Amino acid sequence: MIINESLFALEDQTLDLIGEIKMSNTFCTYINKKKQMNACLDVQRIKKEFVAKKEAFEQIQNFGEYAPDFSEKQRSVRKAKRTLDLNEKVAAFRLAETDLQTLLDSLGQSIASTLSPEIKVEAGNPFFETKGHTCKGTCHG
Q1: Distance of CA 64 to the CA centre of its chain
Q2: Distance in angstroms (rounded) separating the CA atoms of residues 65 and 67
């Protein structure tokens, strides 16, 4: 790669795009929901219970059904995960996270298709659409 003024201009434009993303309502919502989730004592407690049950199951997982209490520990992990996923603050964060990922996927798709229709872009969301999307609004906080 040759380092020249064009490369520096491209880097500046990338930094500008990152700045715009960080000022978007989508990103601000993501950050706010993440802060709310992490500050919630109930979420911390549920997450701690989930991690403990997951670690206990992982210790016996390789032994499969021959391990004592395999089914019970597996079921316990699933129940703890469901409790975590259904928590209002966790669910709101996951929704905001998906919205941000969709925005980033859309930007990547837009850049790639502008350069060449043959460029494939891996979108993390299986429901991601390749139609044009717009983002409106800003947040300065």
Answers
A1: 31
A2: 5
